[in-house]
Amino acid sequence: MAIDQDLLKVISSIDSLDDMNHFFEDIFTPAELDDISLRWKLLKDLHNGLTQRKIAEKYGISLCKITRGSKILKNKDSAVLKVLNS
Known about the structure:
- By secondary structure, the chain is mainly α.
- Helices cover 76% and strands 0% of the residues.
- Helix 3 (30-47) packs across helix 5 and helix 4 crosses helix 5.
- 7% of the residues are buried.
């Protein structure tokens, strides 16, 4: 499923972190916000060289969840990798 282009435009137009935080709280459930925050944290940890096992221990999650993030970072065309490298 593709992300709605209008939604992406709206998100990119928000210039205040406080406003973006409120917008995200309005459209996402607390569980969805937790999931996306965890995904970002584990991606940063992987990028910083933490092992998958250490990340699993740190957040109390399975290695399977971390494997997806590892695959993302192995893709040289990954947008996440470009952001983390900048």
